[in-house]
Structure formats: C-alpha cells, structure tokens
Specification:
Elements (H helix, E strand, L loop, with lengths): L1 H54 L3 H9 L1 H16 L4 H19 L5 H29 L4 H30 L3 H21 L2 H4 L8 E4 L8 H31 L4 H15 L2 H10 L2 H19 L6 H29 L6 H16 L2 H12 L1 H20 L9 E4 L1
Antiparallel strand pairs: 1-2
Helix pairs in contact: 1-2, 1-5, 1-6, 1-7, 1-9, 2-5, 2-9, 2-15, 3-5, 3-14, 4-5, 4-7, 5-6, 6-7, 6-10, 9-13, 9-14, 9-15, 9-16, 10-13, 11-13, 12-13, 12-16, 13-14, 15-16
Length: about 425
C-alpha cells in the first residue's frame, strides 16, 4: 500500500502541475482580453486631434469625449455587483467586452457630439463589467497571491498602453483616417470573447470558496470612518489628475508641441512602461505607511504636472516625464488608493469599499478631460497643468498626512 502510494505521488504531482499551468494559461487569456481593452482605451486620446478637426469640437468638448467613459464606469459599478451575484463571472465578463466593443465601433459612425458621448460612455460601462469580473476571478482563485494577481491585471493595462498607441499610429498613417484604428480595435474585442468562450473553464472563473481564507485584523466596521472619508476625497482628486493627463496629454503633444501621431504614440507607449511597475507600487503600499507612500507620490505628481506642461519640446524629455508619470501616478497612486480603501474596513466590507473607490475616482475622472481642456482654452496649457494637476496634487499630499495607519486592517493567511 505504501509502495502504491509512493508510486502514485509523482503522478499526482504532475497532474497538479498540469492543472496549475492550465489555470495560468486561462488567466493569461483573460489578461490578454484586458490588454485589448487597454489598447482600445488609449487610442481615442491619440486620435482626438483628428476627431476634433473633422467635427469642429472645442478643446473642452474633446477632453470630455476622451474621459466620459469613466462616468460609465462609475455608474456601472453597483449594477455589476448585482449581476455577479446572479450570473456567472465568465458571462458578465463577456457581456462587458461586447458592450465595450460595440460602443467603440459605433464611435466611428457618430454623427456629432451627442451620440459620440453616448457611445464613449457605453464603453465605460463595458469596461467596468469586464474589470470588476476579472478582479473577482483573480482574487477568488489566486487567494494566496491576491496582490500579485491584481497587480498582473494592472500591468496588463500597461502592456496595452504600450502597444495601442503605436499600433494606432501605424494604422492612422496607413489608412489616412482616424476611423480605421477605432473600428479595428473594436472588432478585436469579439475575437477575445470567442477565445474566452472556447478556452476559459468555470473551474477558474466561478471559484467561490478556496482552501485558504484571510483573517483580518483591524479596520472599521462601516464606511463612515476617517480613513474612508479621506480616501474618497483623495480618489476624487486622483480621478481629476489621472484622467486630466490621459484624456488630454496626447492633444497637448500634437497641438501645442506639434508632435506627429507616431511620436505621440511613442510617448504614450513609454507611459505604459511606467504602468508596468504597478507591482512595485503595490509593494511600497504594503511595506510603508500610507501617509508616506501617498504623500510622496502626490508631491511627485505635483512636480510632474509642472514640468510636463511647461513646454519642453524635446522628445526625450517628454518621454522620461511620461515614464515617471506612469509609475508614480498610475502605478503607485491608483494602485494604493484602491488597496487602502479595502484596508480601511473589515473584510466583509471590502466590496463596498471598492465600490466607493470606483465611483469616486472614475466619477471625477469623467469630467477631468473637459476641465483641463476648458482651462487650457482660457488660460493656456501651463496654467491648466498647474491648476488641475500640481495644485490638486499638493492638496492630495496634505490630505494624505491626515490618514490613520493604525486604524487600517492587516491580513494574514489562515
């Protein structure tokens, strides 16, 4: 009997290894679908100058079109939680990709500002459904490596941010119209849906209880606590900063600094390289005090907001600033705002805390492009960078000092 057991052990080990590899491969397919989403998300700001020229939109209107998708994300957060409680995560994720892809394709056929706003907002609804379901899959299956799994999701966005602008610039140059890249990236989403339907099994997506759970220590029992209130204010500020940059920075490069579409795409791809450092940003958040991490990151964002829009025309300068921005703002501020929201409450309130984060950050982000475009139109790009990014970031750094680390929860494996 012992010999049989010993003989069977290698077989079981190989089977478990094969199962793990299969699960990682399926998770890789889900991450690839989010890479496509990120590619699609990054191309509209790159093409915004061409859209503005054809339709005669103002800078403020162009900025609103670039960031209105975040309003869809903010609105769709709670309904997505309702759907996930009643339908499979795989189904919700695919529906989200479908909505995102249809909205993207329809953008190319918009007749004017009103219907284009609707299509762009619809892409946000689809992205919220996809992202929420993807995070649910990652944190439910990879329980022992939740931070790494969520970091991989954010890093996959960085991969899309690298590839998307370059691919869009190539398509724009080859086809001579901004509609070609929009339609092309929209259609790729349906390919991703088919791949998920065929290759991804419920054994990955529908896991509810895993063998390992987490025991929380500390954290408030409800959302009405000091840290959550402060982090909500910081998320509102973060949305205005992050999406002020993402929504209108490519337009600034093309119209103010007169970069070509190819050079603009290259700079935005280098920003994506900075986003790949999200795992480091998350590690910093787990290692050090939130006052130190967010305070220093917001102060760094204030300095970046000043230098980016001062008009340094050299490609190397803008590329370096964009890389640092990707690490500091997207890879550190964004990641840790999400993490600290969850740490501010007991584990059974984590879902509601995440909803507050999504609603506040993406809600303010919806109008970030419009606001920075409005300021730039009235007072110039230098003033827009100082007011919307530098000044708000300084306020964020001061608010970070009021956080209470001792009231945040810690987790241990049980």
């Amino acid at each position: 009997m012992n010999d049989a057991t010993t003989a069977g052990a290698p077989g079981r080990a190989h089977a478990e290894t094969d199962t793990r590899l299969a699960m990682l491969a399926m998770f890789g397919i889900l991450l690839a679908s989010y890479v496509i989403n990120a590619m699609d998300r990054q191309i509209f700001p790159l093409l915004a100058a061409d859209v503005r020229k054809e339709y005669g939109f103002s800078l403020a209107d162009t900025g609103l079109l670039s960031t209105i998708f975040t309003l869809g994300m903010a609105v769709a957060g709670w309904p997505t939680g309702y759907l996930l409680a009643r339908y499979s995560r795989k189904a919700v994720l695919q529906i989200g990709i479908a909505i995102f892809s249809v909205g993207t394709v329809l953008t190319a056929y918009a007749g004017g500002m009103a219907d284009m706003l609707v299509y762009r907002a619809a892409t946000g609804i689809g992205e919220a459904m996809q992202l929420t379901a993807l995070i649910a899959v990652a944190t439910s299956y990879f329980v022992r490596y939740r931070a790494v799994a969520v970091g991989a999701i954010n890093a996959s966005f960085g991969v899309g941010a690298i590839i998307g602008p370059i691919a869009a610039a190539v398509l724009l140059s080859a086809q001579g119209t901004w509609r070609g890249p929009i339609i092309g990236f929209g259609l790729i989403g349906f390919v991703a849906m088919a791949a998920i339907w065929i290759a991804v099994r419920p054994s990955l997506t529908e896991v509810v209880n895993n063998r390992q759970s987490l025991a929380g220590e500390g954290g408030a029992s409800g959302l009405n606590n000091r840290n959550t209130v402060l982090l909500t204010l910081l998320s509102l500020i973060g949305g205005l900063i992050i999406y002020g940059y993402l929504g209108m920075y490519p337009t600034f490069l093309r119209e103010q600094l007169h970069y070509s579409p190819a050079d603009t795409g290259s700079v935005m791809s280098i920003y994506g390289l900075g986003v790949l450092a999200s795992l480091i940003g998350g590690w910093l958040g787990d290692r050090f005090s939130p006052r130190l991490v967010l305070g220093f990151a917001f102060l760094s964002a204030a300095a970046l907001g000043y230098f980016i829009f001062q008009g340094a025309t050299a490609f190397a300068a803008q590329a370096c600033l964009s890389f640092v921005w990707g690490f500091v703002v997207s890879g550190t501020i964004y990641v840790n705002l999400a993490g600290y929201h969850v740490k501010s409450v007991v584990p059974d309130q984590a879902g509601r805390a995440t909803g507050i984060f999504v609603t506040s950050l993406y809600g303010s982000g919806a109008f970030a492009g419009y606001l920075i475009g409005f300021i730039a139109n009235k007072a110039g790009w230098v003033s827009a960078g100082l007011i919307q990014i530098s000044c708000l970031a300084i306020v964020g750094a001061l608010l970070s000092l009021a956080l209470s680390p001792r009231d945040m929860s810690s987790s241990r494996s049980r």
